[in-house]
Amino acid sequence: MAQNTSMEEFEALLNESFEMDTPNEGSVVKGKVLAIEAGQAIIDVGYKMEGRVDLKEFANPGEAPDITVGDEVEVYLRSAENARGEAVISREMARREEAWDRLEKAYADDARVEGAIFGRVKGGFTVDLGGAVAFLPGSQVDVRPVRDAGPLMGLKQPFQILKMDRRRGNIVVSRRAILEESRAEQRAEVIANLTEGQTVDGVVKNITEYGAFVDLGGVDGLLHVTDMAWRRVNHPSEILSIGETVKVQVIKINKETHRISLGMKQLQEDPWDLVGAKFPLGSVHKGRVTNITDYGAFVELEPGVEGLVHVSEMSWTKKNVHPGKIVSTSQEVDVMVLEIDQAKRRVSLGLKQTMRNPWEVFAETHPEGTEVEGEVKNITEFGLFIGLDGDIDGMVHLSDLSWDERGEDAIQSYKKGDIVKAVVSEVDVDKERISLSIKALGGDKFAEAVGGVKRGSIITVNVTAIEDGGIEVEYEGMKSFIRRSDLSRDRAEQRPDRFSVGDKIDVRVTNVDSKTRRLGLSIKAREIAEEKEAVEQYGSSDSGASLGDILGAALKGDND
């Protein structure tokens, strides 16, 4: 009887055990650490089941396992029994499931999560987010490219979840977003404490072609190259170096963009305040050429004060050359102050004004009539240009080349490089012109020869040639031609062959042409003039006396 009761109790207990809820495989269950041996923790998960978990699954990246006998832990039940009759469990998978629940909530709330970078992969790094592994792209590590991520490895720090997909097991996080947010908060706080015109200390963080970025304690300001010094600064590295602490003034703050403009020269005295007193108009000063352009050269009179020498004020003689052929950068030159515009901060300077006008000098040293010598620099359709002292040119017009030849013919005998002599005929300083004459070198022979000869004068000439149309004669070395019709009053006597070369004859001057340098001569005009004079003196044609009698009487009177 007792035996039957015992069997019934056993059957009831067995059925009760079968009816009890057993954990489902693939779920997270609680267990108790029974022992630690051979690098594993033996965990009782209840239901007469025990399993083993490697100790490394209880350690965070870079840390030692944190587990002791008696601890209660959550593990993931992968299988209720393996070949050895033990439960197959995993602490890491339990942590992952727990972490995914926590991370999904944080992602939905746009909250930060804590993690540690523990590995490097292609394109970025792996991050442990308390059991779940996320990908940190290289571009999301910091606000600036990171060359060495060693100091960041294993360090617990906040991250922002950018993207996650539980089904695929993908999580993408960003450290940069956290830094930018923190930076923005810090920036806003710093900017709130800054005011325009305030003087602050900063550290030079970066130098570019156009300026330098200065850290003001969590916020960067731009120090433009034009605000570094009153003088011209070609590159910021001339006066600044990275890491240097500088004193700057806050020039402008843009509340919307949080951009800050800084200045260094504003803390120094403005040299333009004293320009008018230091550099009066007409004064000459020594300066240094700082920059050369197509239209002139900039000359520094003192640090912070530059003036422009326009190309037209650089040389008296070099009119169409680039300023770089007259001066060079860093060259010291003497300049004259021509104009000051205080409002526009401009000074107009002159280089040529410090030297005497070469045309004035030439006019003083070479009065009209002075003989000069120079090289033929250029030949044009209207004359020759001759190089003279003082690097200036004089011009010989076609009409001043020769007394005897046409200018177009005379110029053919000259070429560039010829050394010629000439006489200064005129100097116009205002127009910067010098007129020269080559034909005047030997004087004006025609003027000298006919100096006392006027129209109507009777002169004696020598016959030099007999031609069909008349005769060629010479007077004081000047040639003239008497046409056949002017050889006699009597047509029968108008024969050139009645004269011989070497004959001396008296002729009347009918014209003095200085332009063609010719004398108009006539025997006929002389005879008519003599007849008229005789008639007026000894009678008229109406008195009854014959012309022969009158002329005979006149000739007799001359002989007496």
TrEMBL record:
GO terms for cellular component: cytosolic small ribosomal subunit. The keyword ATP-binding does not apply. One of its GO terms (molecular function) is structural constituent of ribosome. The keyword Ribosomal protein applies. InterPro entries: NA-bd_OB-fold (IPR012340), Ribos_protein_bS1-like (IPR050437), Ribosomal_bS1 (IPR000110), Ribosomal_protein_S1-like (IPR035104), S1_domain (IPR003029). It comes from the Bacteria. Residues 26-92, 110-176, 197-265, 282-352, 369-439, 456-524 form the S1 motif domain. GO terms for biological process: translation. CDD domains: S1_RPS1_repeat_ec1_hs1 (cd05687), S1_RPS1_repeat_ec2_hs2 (cd04465), S1_RPS1_repeat_ec3 (cd05688). Pfam families: S1. Keywords: Repeat, Ribonucleoprotein, Ribosomal protein, RNA-binding. PROSITE patterns: S1. Belongs to the bacterial ribosomal protein bS1 family. Binds mRNA; thus facilitating recognition of the initiation point. It is needed to translate mRNA with a short Shine-Dalgarno (SD) purine-rich sequence. PANTHER family: 30S RIBOSOMAL PROTEIN S1, SMALL RIBOSOMAL SUBUNIT PROTEIN BS1C. This is 30S ribosomal protein S1. It comes from Antarcticimicrobium luteum.
